Structures are given as structure tokens and as C-alpha cells.
Amino acid sequence: MILRHSSLEGLLSTLSTGARVYVPAKADGVTKFVLYSSSVRPDFSITNTTMPPKDLLFPQTQHMYRYGTDAEGVPYVEPVHDADDVIVFGMRPCDVRSIECMDDVFLTKGFVDVSYQAKRERLLMVAMACTAPAPTCFCNSMGLCPTAAPLADILLRPAGATDASGDTAYLVEAQSEKGQAALAQWESYKATDTSDADFEPVSAAVSCSLKVSMVGVKDKLEAMFDHPIWEQLSKKCITCGTCTFVCPTCHCFDISQENRLSEGTRFRCWDSCMFTAYTEMAGGHNPRASKSARVRQRFMHKLCFFEQRYGKTLCVGCGRCVEKCPVALDITCLIDQIGAADVAY
Amino acid sequence: MSHIEIEHGCARSVEGRDALMPLPCRVLAVSQETSDVKALRITSLQGTRPFDAKPGQTAMLSIIPSGECMFCVSSQGEDYLEFTVKKVGFVTEQLHALRPGDAVGLRGPYGNWFPYEGLRGKDLLFIGGGIGMAPLRSLITYLFDCRSEYGAIDLVYSGSTPDDLVFCREIQEDWPRIDGVTVHLSVYRESPGWDGEVAFTAPFLERLGYAPDGRIAVLCGGPSLFRTCLASLEKLGFAPEDIITTLEMRMKCGIGKCGRCNIGSHYICLDGPVFSIAELHKIPGALH
Amino acid sequence: MPVNEAPTASAATAATAATAATAFEPTILAFCCHWCTYSGADLAGLNRMSYPANVRVLRVPCSGRVNPQFVLTALNKGCDGVLVCGCHPGDCHYVSGNYFARRRLMAFKRLLEFTGLEPERFQVRWISGSEAGKFRDTVIEVCDQIRALGPYRSGVSDDVSLNG
Amino acid sequence: MSLSTAEALTDALREEARRLLAEGTVAVVVGWEAGRFPNQTTPAFISDPEQAQRLVYGDYCVNTLAKYALGEKAAGKVAVCVRGCDSRGINRMIADNQLLRDEVYLLGLPCSGMKDPATGSLLMKCRTCTEHDAVTYDVLLGPATAAGHDGASADSSAGDSEHVSDEQRFTAVLGIEEMAPEKRRALFDAAFNKCIRCYACRKSCPCCTCRECFVDQLRAGWQGKQNNLAENRFYNITRVFHIGDRCIECGECERACPMGLPLMALNRKMVKDLKSLFNADDAGMTEENSAALGRYDLGDLEEFM
Predict the structure, then answer these.
(1) Which of B170, C150, D168, D293 would bridge D245 by S-S if both were Cys, CB 3.0 to 4.6 A apart?
(2) Which residues in chain C have Cβ-Cβ distances shorter than 8 Å to D234?
């Protein structure tokens, strides 16, 4: 199916009648996925939104259940259900890949996370292939392709040729049954005066300029737990949580509660392995008390531990942390340093 | 010689139940074990055992409005699960204030368990310090229930003062009467009313001179006891495969998702807490 | 207790929801210094002066004890206004507590107003132990002002959705 | 600054760092080195004299380095590259009893305002800076720039750093003060709504040196962990109030903020009020602690009668 850029607005407003549709846009100076309405101007030229779409599945604050004591003094606990049909329109391939990582965490290994699952089942991912990766993008190096998003339900690839009116066209393909079914709603917006064959979609030749080599990185890291690199590298880290909060795959959380008189709600919220209190135990012992231990944990988890456990790297190469770290502690520089480290593996 | 197989990551969510949501429960009984340790027996609102836990498994106990803490189930009965709680922080302080009939939340069971199947027929050496007795006790009481299936049981247990020995009366009076059970107690400091051994655990253990002889050691205690006793066991000739321990780390979710108890590719709450020392040698940072 | 039996916060909230905005009754938290205003409130009670039951008196040892975070917490926990009352400058039981409080709260009040808080919602007054009438008048005045403003919206229940 | 000035300063810095390390005067030099991207720099920690050539100085040294002295001082004396902001941060930490003057060796550097490597324009924090040059140092590398000093400007581009008047410094504050209360509320509610509470602002701040931040005092329960407007407002206002009378106006918090919150408008509101109400000194100009909220005057303005 070919979709012209000029029909997007109509499509989005149709879609938003049956689901909550999120599109990349700038709101209050921050680029993120914004709930579509007629007043929102989607901006598909944003390569990576500052905030990743992860919070649509894993909100920064997720209320889990309410509790209290009933009139007879019997304690009760009742779940909070808040899943809705959601369409994320214009996810980048790296963000789609990040959902794959989150699926591994929340849906496998013996325990299924109920609230994540409820949201995940009602999520439709519409991906948009990248034509112009940002200078901080390095997804190629992490085994991704900027123009392919296998897990997405629907993939939009900007087509190379534009017609006389200068209107960009997208080649639309369903990649899952769910996507196929969803396309029924799109039919009336497709370009009828042309066919798929007339368009050459953006090709695999699109590539990030920033490149790192992941060869041997995981294996080397297995032997680098006690390497001096962590102490050196962590000196400049100020242990804020920026990298973990803008990361599309960071999924660590805390569980806390909010009480009002005799009732309350327990929620889970994002937490960061960079924070001292994250691993501090009652009684004061902290297994990751030092800054270097925490920095090591973050990078080892991304580049080594997660791969050992789930078979994929927990970094998708979106470059958000590279861009937002206030002290330029750059994961790509770290990968280079690991590559250069004289460690047998 | 084949080593004991410990299962990891074997806990599963209960169908139809949100693994993060507690069951409302009540306190059945409270007993003061030491000045800062209490044993709490928890029963469901219907008066039944909230769930089954295997020896060594953990559960998240909560004063629902205040917060949750992970504990090892220290024993279980027909209609209760028992937890041994040391007062160390905000939530445990409130757990200590509970009285029978009070409401609590409970979710679990989580984590793996001591390899009680594989231990059948073996001689066992338990080494514990202070509150570290709680997880050991879950296995020991299990072994007592099917005593004939296991070999000799030796216990080396110590605490800073006699008051830090949890379940002291039971351990001193009841356990030695059981066939094939030997108990060695020590305290670290001379204390009024204590005429037993005064020694740190590791030298005491070495002095007792247990030889491996197919024996399996089960170790649980604070960081310094763990380090020193591990060295002593290795000195006595125990192979890392024959030393089993249970780890403690801050846990929040209990289901291997929230990240804080991550060591290497493992989550202690899900894959542990029970590991052999041989396994821990292969996990970066686990023995730090 | 120098305060009349007061409706609970949740009852007040429920009442607000049930009836029109004109029936709004604010909840006001008054931090009162033990050495002066608290006695002044007591005296007001002894003299059978009547004042609105909207005010909840919280005794503090000194106005200097009032951490500005208390004010924010009170607003977040459902109060519609906060009043801090202490000894007149020069009369502090601890010599200087209210002088520190004066500087601190003056700066804090300006900061809150800078971020858009209505000035009436956070007020500071010096009321001595003998000024029962001033206590009553202050409570009436503050209560009327905040009743006119309507309930305070803290945003406790609006969880921030980062995307959206 | 011109390329030649930057190069000359870089050479002088490297030479001085090499000498200090080789002679054992200091254990580590904290400066900047080149990052991966064009013009990007990142904080550098040099303890081997041979590595001193990694140091760079120029128009893009965006990080204020003062706070690193705290983390590095355990290893011995710390040489820190200082400009106006860094040196005021050092003074502030000395005043707050976090640091002794003797624990640091300050390498003064002239500054004409730093630029954003991505855009090449002067950083927001540098546009309203009142003290470009180090207010304290052990050695001054290169001539002082014009602002606030008598010396002639180092080169023509120092025109960037003409003296900033209070009016310019408080422009943002004055603009917001003029708004109607509802507009101010809307402005800050939008800002606080954006906050993700990554705490980059407190972590980058040379005044935020509490061993345990109120945020982490879980037992006291000041700060809920939920991200909502009320909690975000609580955090942001409390942060400002805690540092307001000690703020050195380095602007690191606002630069570090990934969500672009107007943190300096909040900080400067405090600075401006304390200055006008209590005649407070600009913070960090000396090692003395003269924080306005830590003292009082019998004759202070009375408005609570």
C-alpha cells in the first residue's frame, strides 16, 4: 500500500477514534510521543524523540493495586486496570527493538508481569524507517537496520521518489496478523493513482555514521569485572539517572506506595541503578556502594549480562544517553575502550 | 563423584494471579526470639496456609501501607507460614509492632530452594550466624520431618552474644535430642550466664575439624562470617561444589524484573537465593 | 484542645464533591508556636470566641521549627491553605527562632508565589499568647480568603505521562 | 576566544599539569579532554604526567568542574581547572565545610563564555554569567578576560563577555514576576510536569553536597517516588530553597537538565529576593559562608505583623 504524507492527518484522526494514538511531536520543548489530537502536530522528521516510547508500556508511575480495610475491618487488595488500545505511530526501528528487550524481561522467565502484558497485548506498533540517522545514532553497530523493524506490526518506509506535488510517499507493509487486520482502517487513505511498484522504498543502504565494533565485547566484559576501566570511567559520572531514564530499554523499577488516611495505592516507578539508594539494604549495607560499581553494573548489564540471559544486547543504539549525558560519558567510547583493552577472551 | 544439582529460576507465577499483588493475610502468632528478632506466623484470611513454600524459598511480607520486605520462610505449619524478622529498618520495625489478628500482605513464594532431594542420604554440616539461622532452619526442620532419609546433621551456630542466637532454646534443648544431630554453639564475646564456647565462627569451625567425607556444608550468615567460614571450609578440604549458601540482596519485585538483585546474568530473587559456591565463583561480583 | 470538633479531611472533600462550589469549605493547617499562638488559641477557646472549624492547629515548639517542606507537604496532602503563627519578633522563647523563621518564610513565600501559588494560601502572622482576638480574627480572615479562592489543586492525582 | 588563544591556553595548561603531576604537587588534574563528536569535550582526570597532553581548553568546555574535587580529594591534592563558575563552586564548598582550600590547587583560566558544541552559540548559562574569570586561583594561565576585572580583554572575541548587569542577570525572573499568577502557575506546572526526576540538577550542583539528600530520606518520607505534578513540584521547589542562598549561579543544573526545565529562573528568583531583602552577597566570591538564610538581622523587613 502506498500512503501519501498528505493523507496522514486524515488517517491519524480516523485511527484516534478507536484507540489512543501516539505520534512523535514536540511538547513543552521536549520531543516525545504525544497523544494525537487535532491540536497536535506530528513531526516525523524527529529521528529520535528525547523520551523513548517505553512508558506507554512501562509508565514512570504505574499504579498496581489499591488497598485498605473494609467496614468490618477486613483488609482488601484490588487491582488497578488501566490498559487501553494504543497505537504508537512512527516508532523508530531502535525503539521497536527496545520493546523486544522489554518483552523478554516482563513476559518470560517464569513470571509474566500482568500490567505490562495487559498493555502489550493492546499495543499496535507502527514503525517508520529512518532515512536520516542522527549523528548520535549507532543502531547498525548493535545489529539493527535503520530501515527494518521486524517486530513492528506495520512498517512505513518513506519511498525514494516523490511525486510532482512534492508529497512524500510511504510504502506501507503489514508485518503481523495484527498489523494486517489493522490495515483495513487504512484502505480509504491509500494512494489509488499509483502502485507499490512505482516506488522504491528507502533502502538498507541507510546507515549510521557513528560506528562501533561489538566483536568480542560481551566475551571480554566477562573477564573485565575487576578491570581498572570502571574506576577510570566512572570518575566523571555524576550518578544522575538521565541515561537510564531516557534509555528505551532500561527497565529497573522500585515499588512504593501512596497513602491517604486508611487507604492507599501501591505503584511501581522507574528507578535507576545509578542511584545510591537503589541497592541499599535495610540496615545500611550496600552491595553497590561505590560509583564505579554502579557504573559497571549499568554497562555490564547492557552489554554483557543481558545478552547472557536473553541472547541480545540491552543497547539498541538509539544514542539518547550519548546525547543527554551531562558529562558526555559515552557508551560508544566505552565500547571502543573495551575493544582496545588487552583482555584475553 | 556427582555433585548436588541445584535448580535455578524454577519458581513460576501462579496462573491467574498477579505475582506482584499481595494476598491479604493475618498474623496468627508472634514470638519474641531475641531482643531484636521476632518470629511471625502468618495465616490467610480463611485461616489456611497462604501457600506452600519449599525449604529456602522466600516471600514478600508487607505492612501494606508502609512497604514490603523479602524474607525466607523459616518454617511452615498446617495453617501458617513462619518468618523470622530482625528489626533493622523502617518496615521491620513495624513488623515487630504487629500483634495476632493484625493484617499483613504476603506474596510469593519466590526463588529456588535447597536441593533437599539431592541431599538425601548425605551427611550435612550447617554453619550459621545470628539471623542467618532463619533460612537454615527451614531446611533443618524439613530434614527432621523425614529424619531417616538423611545422614548425620551437624550444626555450628554462633552469634555476637547469647541474645543473638535465634531459636536458642529449641536449638539447645530440642535439637540435640534428635537422633544423629549434633549442635555446637558459640558466642563472640564473654557474656554473663554463658558458659559455652566463646569464639568466632571460623576458628571454631576449624577447631571442630570437620572433614569433607562426602559431607555437604550449608552456610548462611553476614558478610564477614560468610567470608571467613568459606575460607575455613576450603581449608578443611570442602570442594566449592559441596558448599551451599543462600544469598541476601535488596529485592523489590521477587520475580526477576526490577533489577536490583542482579548479579551477572542472574537475579537472586528468581534464580537464587540458593547457590553452590562453585556456581558463585562463576558469577562476577557474587563473592565480593 | 483549643479547636472545635472538625470534620475530617475526607468528609470535607466528599462534601465539596457533592455540592456546588459555593459550599466549599477549606481545610487550613495552622502551625502554632507553643509559647504564644497556641496559648492565644487556647485563650480564644476559654473566652468562648467562635472561629471557623476549618482550621487544624498543629503545635510546634517555635515558628523556627517550621521547615518550609512542611508547607509544601501540607498542600500536597490536601490542605487548601497553610498558616504559620509565631511570637512577635523580640519575644522568641529561644531568643532567635522567629528571626530565622522570618527570613526563611519571607523568601519561601516569594518563591511559592513566583511559581504561581496564590499569596493567601500561605500566610505568616505573629500572635502572642494574650492575643486571642487576633488569633480568631486571623483565622476568620484567612478562612474567608481561601474559601473565596476555592480548593487547592496540588496535582497529586495527575500522574505525569511522559508521552502524551 | 580565538583559535590561537585556545591553543596557547591548552599548551600552558598541559605544561602546568605535567609539571604539577611530575613534581608530585598534586595527585590528579581535573580538566577537559576532547570527546567523540566535533567540538565536544568531557571532564578529564589526569594522574599520569605523560597523559597531560590529553587536556584541552577552548570555547566548548561546558562542564563546571568544581564538584569533582570532592570525589578526587581522597587520592591527594587535586588540581582543578577553574574559571569564574568553577572557582566560585570551590569557594562555596569550602564555605560549606566540604573542602579545605589546601586540598585543591586551582589552575585559573580566562573565559569568554562557553559554546554549545551542537549549535556553536553561547551557552545559556554563560550569557548571564557575572564572573567569567576565576575569583581564586593558585596560578593564572593566560591573561584575564575583561569581565569584572581591570585587565584588558584577552582578544577581540572577549566582547562576548561584557559585564552583565543585574537587569540582564535577572531578565528571566523579572519577566516571570510580571506575569499574572495563573500564567506563572501554568508555566511552572508545565515545567514540573516535564521533570523526570533524574536528579541531574542536584548531582551537578556544587551546592548540593548533603551526605543524604531529603529525597533519599525515605523514613522521613519527604519525597514520594511517584512522578506526578505534586511530587515534582515538591522536589523542584525544595531543591531551589535548599541551595537558593548559596547558589553560585553556575547554571550547571539547567545545562544538565535533559528536559529543559527553567531551573535558573527559580534559582535566580531566590538570589534576587535575598539580595534585595537582606542585601545578600553573591555566593562563592570568597571562602566565607555568608548564606543569607543562615543568619538574621534584628532590623529585617517586617511583613508578617
Answers:
(1) D293
(2) 69, 72-73, 76
In a domain, B181, yes or no: yes
Contact call for D177 and C115, based on CB within 8 A: no
Range of the domain at D202: 168-294
State whether CATH 3.40.50 applies to domain C24-149: yes
User: What average pLDDT does range A177-187 have in this prediction?
Assistant: 95
Return the pLDDT at C16.
47
Chains B and C: 3 or more CB pairs within 8 Å of each other? no
Give the amino acid at D137. Answer: Y
Give the pLDDT of residue B176: 92
Mean pLDDT, rounded, for A22-41: 95
Q: Which domain holds residue B27?
A: 23-110
The verdict on a CB contact (< 8 Å) between D40 and A328 is yes
Residue B213 in domain: yes
Q: What is the DSSP letter of A136?
A: T
Query: Are D234 and C69 within 8 A, CB to CB?
Result: yes
- Asked if residue D202 and residue D149 are part of one domain, the reply reads no
D245/C contact by beta carbon, under 8 A:
yes
Distance, CA of C144 to CA of C155 (rounded, Å): 23
Instruction: Indicate the pLDDT class of residue A165, thresholds 50, 70 and 90.
Output: low
Q: Give the neighbor-by-neighbor strand order of the sheet with C81-86.
A: C55-60, C28-33, C81-86, C122-126
Q: Do A258 and D194 touch (CB under 8 A)?
A: no
d(CA B264, CA B270): 13
Let me know if residue D106 belongs to a domain. Answer: yes
| Least confident piece of the model among A69-78, B127-136, B146-155, C47-56 | A69-78
Q: Which 8-state DSSP code applies to residue A53?
A: G
Nearest to D226 among A245, A267, A272 (CB): A267
Tell whether B254 is covered by a domain. Answer: no
* Residue of D37, D196, D200 lying closest to A60 (CB–CB): D196
Burial code of A90-112, b = ≥16 C-beta within 10 A, e = fewer?
bbbbbbbbbbebbbbbbeebebb
Q: Does residue B65 sit at the A interface (CB-CB below 8 Å)?
A: yes
Confirm whether D305 is domain-assigned.
no
> A93 falls in which pLDDT band (50, 70, 90)?
very high
The pLDDT tens digits of the residues spanning D34-55 come to 999 999 999 999 999 999 999 9
Q: What is the ipTM of this complex?
A: 0.91
CB contact under 8 A, A61 and C160: yes
